[in-house]
Structure formats: structure tokens, C-alpha cells
Amino acid sequence: MCSTGGVRWERQRVGVEPVLPGLEGLVRTVRPPEFDGVTFHEVRARSVLNKVPEGSGVPFGWTVNPYRGCSHACTYCLEGGTRILLADGRTRALSELRAGDRIYGTRGHGAARRLVPTTVLAHWSTVREAYRVTLEDGTRLVAGEDHRFLSGRGWRFVTGSRLGVAQRPHLAEGTELVGVGRFAATPDDTLGYRAGYLCGMLRSGGFAGEPDATARAVRYLPDFGSSVGFLRVPKTPDAHWRHGFLAGVFDLAGGYRRGALRITHEEPEIVDALCAALEASGFGYDRGEQRVKLRGGTAEVIRFLHACDPAVGWKRSLDGTAIGASRRRVVSVEPLGLRLPLFDITTGTGDFVADGMVSHNCFARNTHTYLDFDAGRDFDTQVVVKVNAPQVLAAQLRRPGWTREHVAMGTNTDPYQRAEGRYRLMPGIITALARSGTPFSILTKGTVLTRDLPLLESVAADVPVRLAVSIALLDRDLQRRLEPGTPSPAARLDLVAKARAAGLPCSVMVAPVLPWLTDSAEALDALFGRLADVGASRVTVLPLHLRPGTREWFARWLAREYPALVPRYRQLYARGSYVTKAYRERLGERVGPLLRRHGLDLPENLPEQRSHRVEPAAEAVPANPAEQLRLL
After folding, report:
1. CA neighbor of 608 nearest in space, from 481, 502, 512
2. Phi, psi (5° rounding) for residue 457?
3. What was the pLDDT predicted at 381?
4. Residue 402, CB half-sphere, CA atoms under 13 Å: how many?
């Protein structure tokens, strides 16, 4: 299991399954101290020169990839909107988690488990075949076939995958899944919720002795000016007021201990209002003279915390809570017939709680059969290194059948990622290609390329060498949200400048251009101006395209970041994956004059001079919008 303790190579155990291609030559697994949190799996590869499949549509036939960015490709798990239980008792969408976030995992044996805080060690995504798992209470989970949920009889995969004796334990109708109950929606922060919270927290005449509750009350009070009307309990409170009231009175006089949530209050009217609010919200309770205890165990406690959202952090703690008694049956498991963006994480406990169900982590499996990695993030945690790549490539290039076709690097994972600073494989690869008379190109975002510019300048006298750097925009804030974990635009511009100073042609892919976000004349003018300043030898402009199954991923990001643009994008991509012809024409009309203004419109047949293209789309661009935003 992938954790701070290393990697468990499950498939290399005798009698389990044969070792899969890609790591047959495993030399060692190391975690060097200078690369905090990074695990390197050093392998001796048999081949590094790879033929591109026929019909791929890319403008090259061969690739060389000395690194495989992540070995997690076989177990991507859940749809990005799946809610994950955080260590503060709240929830967050799986796609929004980041390494370092604190969430809940479990400890225990079988189904007898308790919640414990754990840390997200890694987070990534890909596009895979999706399945819908429907539970008896209506919960629907979208997951990949390799994802595992905890059942009353142990871990179960979503599908069996194989037939006969090789079939693995998997979900079926009637399977009981272990969890913490169905998650409730967090209340909206409305004026009614705020009035209810202040009533519950301040009714007894003062602030609660908790900084979190006090801070919330101080933030809410200005909404009501000099009025104290919020201290009155309404005759017919709505759901917003009820949830705010329950949160406020819990922050003031409630607590959760030993599996029981209790609220104690001396004022009869508040106790009456408390019971009425619980009943109206569907909660069962036991009432004493001044004390109210919530019924229903862990599932109802968590539903209360989510539906009411109290402010006091320690009162929300679920540490040590037993969860084995909360189970829900599987009603159906159905293939969606779509490839969807799916996400997974690695945690310290090896599991996490997704939409109320205990879910297994991804294992770092010993194969890189799948190459649809998030190379902007995944290589930060698990990097497979072909330590003999230069020697193997040199031998392959000496074969009589090699016809010196163009070789492209940077097509799957960046050859100048951080690992290259340690392993220095590229100088040997570049030398092998040059000595064999093989032309090559490199696409990268990594500034490690600067180290090899003198070598590239030298070999360019013998073979054609092309460099390319992707720069989609200049806005640093937007770049962080679109391309998390990648070098800044300024760093990439500096890389282009240094390549041109070394006398090497260096093109720039302005991709993807996002309609109404990065396609304005002002934004493009500023970007083209910087590209001209650093001497870009060629500019290719690519508008965003969305293939079936990837639209959901991008639509979710757009709805979260720019909801007003959602209707416009629906219209723009109404007929399929590509922007409309009218939009492409408008973009071309906008780009042309700007490129001319900055001297970037020279003919393409002058390789040492500047040129440009405006493409309707590019088959070489990853289909997943996440990859488009981070890899280009």
C-alpha cells in the first residue's frame, strides 16, 4: 500500500500473479531525503523506444519516455464530486482534496473499525470506464471497476473483472457496505440561518466560551444592526433558521462523547425550541428536564453535524467513533457506458470515507500499462525511473532496421521533471539520438532543461532538434487554479528565452485557450507580447476541446469557479467536443492581427524565424480537460 512507509509490491509475491510488464527489472525502491515525499522505483528497462499506435493522429511515430510519472494507473476510484469526510467533521469534494489535507480514515479489523484522523499523501485523476453503485437509501456512487468498498465480509471490488476461480470478491445485489451513514447537505449561510445561530448561541445572555463560536457570532451580528429581534424564537421557523439554531445551541451547551450527542440547557423555551427543531428536521431524541440526547448512533450524529454545521472544532471531533454498525445494502452495480474523469487518493491509514462508505486507497501497482496519468502531480509521489534508458536506447538505435524517424519526448510524462535533476538520463538519451542521426523534439514545462542547453546546441549541428514549451496564460492566480503544481508562466518564459539565446528553435503552444477566460484580445495581446520578447520561434494556438465523458469534469470546475459562463459553454459545445466553427473563425480573426503586431506571423517554412498556427483542435492534446489544463 502506498504510504509514508513505502510501497507494497503485491503482484510480485510468488503464487499471486505474474509480474506485469514495466517493472520486471525492478532494481530498488528508494526515498531520497532531498526529495521529500517522493518514492523512486528504479527499473532496468528492456526497451525505451516506443512505436506510436497507428491511427493515433499525432504528428510523430516514435516516443522515448525515461520516466513513468505514477504507478497508480490501475486503480483510479471515484467521481470527483464524491464527498469525503474531513477530520473536522465536514466534507469536501474528492476532486478538491490536496496532498496534506486532514481527513478521516479507519483503524481496526474487518468491519469492526473506528474513525481516526489521517493525512492525504497523494491525489490524482484520470479518465476511465465508470460504474454506478446504487444503495438502498438512494445513494449513488460513481467509481472505476478496480475501486474497493468495505463490506461486512471484507473489501469488495466494484466488479469481478475475471471469471471462474480467478474472479475477485466484488459487489453484488444485497452486499452490505460498512460506513457512517448518508451525508447530509451543509446548510446555506442565509440570513435566516444566521438569525437562528445567534438565537441559539446568545439567548442565555452572553457569548459561548469558545473562540470558534464567538468569531462566528461576531461575523453575523452586523447583519442585524442594533436590533435584537433574532433573540426571539419564531412561531413557524423555516429550515434555515432551525439548522442555525441547532448549531448555535450545540456550540453553547452541547457536546459529543462516547458515541452520544447531548445538549443541556436551563431555559425551558430553548429546550422546547430545540426539540421542535430536531423533530422538524427528522431527528429522533430522548428528552429529560434540561437535557436532550440524539438517537440513532453515529449515522445521526454525523447527519446532525453536516445538516447544522456548528462552529466549535473540538465538538465536531469524531475521533475514535465506532462505525461497524452502520451498514447499507447494494441495490445495483451498472456500467455507465462512459469514460469519465475519476479521482483517487493515498492516505496514511490506507482508506477514507466517501459519501458515507469506507473506501480503499489506491495501491501503487507494478505496472504502467495505462499512460493516462496526471503528470502535473502524480510524479511527485511515485516515479518509475528507467535507469538504463540511455544504454538501451543506444542499442535500439544501432539496429539495422532503424530508419531514423523523428522521435518525440514529453508526450506522456515530462522528461525534465524533478527526477531528472537526480538521475540525469536525458544527456545520454540526447547523445544517443544525435550519434545515430535521429531527429528529435522535446516538449516540457521543466526548467531542468536549462542544464542541457549547451549539449542541445552542440548536437543541433548534426541532427534537427526542436524544443517546445506550453504557456497558456500569464495570469498567475488563474494559472494556479488551472495548472496546479506546474512552473509559473514567468519561469517558462525564461526557459524559452534561454533556449533561443542558445540558438535553438523553441516554439510555444498557447493551449488550451479557454473561451471568455483567456481568449480576450487583451490577454492574448499581453501573452503574445511576452512571447515575442523572449524570441519564441513558433506559436500554435489551440482552443479547448471536450470529448464525451470529459465534459462533466470541466463543467464542474466551471460551475464552481465561473458559474455565469456555464450556459455560454453549453451553447459553444452543444454539437460535440469542439468549439463551433464560428468561434474558431472569431478566434482566428482576433489572433491574426495580434500576431502580426508582435512579429509572430512569419511563414512556417522558415524554421529559424517566427511563425504561428491557429488550430481548431489537436489530436495530440490530452482528451481529459484536467490533462489539457496541466500538461499543455
Report:
1. 502
2. -60, -40
3. 57
4. 19
Grid cell digits, residue 96: 478538491
Question: What backbone torsions phi and psi does residue 141 show, to the nearest 5 degrees?
Answer: -115, 130
Non-local (6+) Cβ contacts of 254 within 8 A are 261, 262, 263, 264, 310, 315
Can you give the length of the chain in residues?
Answer: 632
Closest-CA residue to 294 (of 328, 233, 308):
308
| Sign, CA torsion 44/45/48/53 | negative
User: Who wins on pLDDT, 123 or 619?
Assistant: 123
With beta carbons less than 8 A apart as the criterion, state whether 604 and 574 touch: no
CA distance 346 to 364: 9
Contact indicator for 2, 346 with CB cutoff of 8 Å:
yes
Integer Cα distance of 166 and 208 in angstroms: 60
The whole-number pLDDT of residue 240 equals 94
DSSP states of 203-271: TTSS--S-HHHHHHHHHHGGGGTT--GGGSPPSS--HHHHHHHHHHHHHHHEEEETTEEEEE-S-HHHH
Per DSSP, 168 falls in state P
d(C-alpha 62, C-alpha 397), whole Å: 12
| CA–CA separation, 316 and 285 (whole Å) | 19
Residue 508: partners with Cβ closer than 8 Å, 6 or more residues away = 468, 469, 470, 471, 496, 531, 536, 538, 539, 540
pLDDT in tens, 346-401: 888 889 999 999 998 754 322 333 333 333 334 345 678 899 999 999 999 999 99
| C-alpha distances out from residue 594 to 511, 514, 588, 591, Å | 16, 17, 10, 5
Half-sphere exposure of 521 (CA within 13 A, CB side): 7
β-pair partners for 419: none
Task: Report the phi/psi class of residue 432: left, alpha or beta, with left for phi > 0 and alpha for psi in -120 to 50.
Answer: alpha
**C-alpha cell, 411:** 508526450
